[in-house]
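Attaching the record inline, Q. Sequence:
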Amino acid sequence: MGFPGQRPLPVELPRFPLAHLPTPLHDAPRLAAAVGLARLLLKRDDLTGFAGGGNKVRKLEFLLGDALRRRADTLIAVGGPQSNCVRTAVAAARVAGLEPIAVLYGRPPETREGNLLLDTLAGARLVFTGSDDRESTEPAADALTAELRTAGRRPCLIRRGGATPLGDAGYVEASAELAAQLVALDVRPDLLVTASGSCGTQAGLIAGAAWLGAPYRVLGILVSRPRAESVERLLDLARGTARLLRLGVRIGRRQVHVEERYLGPGFGLASPEGDAALRLAYEREGLVLDPVYTAKALAGLIDLVRRGEIPRAATVVFLHTGGEPILYARHRHYAESAPAMMGAPT
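Structure, as predicted:
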């Protein structure tokens, strides 16, 4: 294969075990045929096995391990009302014996569905900023952290998406796990595709690919931030992760690959192309995607193949990062759009 299989991280970090690993890697022949690819493999991080947390579980093992090392008694997670990271973090906090607090942008909705319902089931304290600005969570969380410290508490603050070098270490480790699976299958992929929002997962994959000498490019389909901001953020996070773990690699702009054409109407909003991809994945492979992240990532892959920007002869790994509870919070959207989606499969 030309690159090593599973290997431990060079630096041992404290962690709190949550995930059931390794997650499966398997062929998706029917979806590959529909997309027009020679071979498509699915890396099933939707099956990390804790609270339906998908990719966030790998990050939280390290983030929570560090929080416990610091003797934290409270965990504060920030994001939107349907944040996958917040939902998984509050569940993990409960399991670890910490008090969970969710700082969310926007206002309390009339009904609690999807991830917000699960936050409620976990008994999390919900703090809404009252502003639709996603950035409003940062000062609110900082103020709450200071307030709790003044009161003698020991809070741990997890930023949006868990996207820090420490959290991203989870996807350096995932890269080694994937490498071992590829070696076992004697597969040499050309491309690894993932949704990229807060950029942490892709940054860890970039650092991991550089460390392992992987043969594939890591392509992020942007679902949140504009291209220029994402590139700078990916570079900063990937380099920070490489330094933290002492990977001994240099990461440059040529290793950062992103596509911003598939955001649709905006972050958190379904797109027609994403809806079509979501339905296609379910019909062809029984694969449940979410409208915010994975559906848009698959829509991007489909379109790039059709445009000839990804060769049909390519072997591609698609990282399924989870997030299905968001789908259930959008049931009205799909109930209303179902008639328009009932044509022949793509």
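Residues 176 and 321 are 17 Å apart (CA to CA). Residues 25-53+164-341 form a domain with the Rossmann fold fold (CATH 3.40.50.1100).

More tomorrow.
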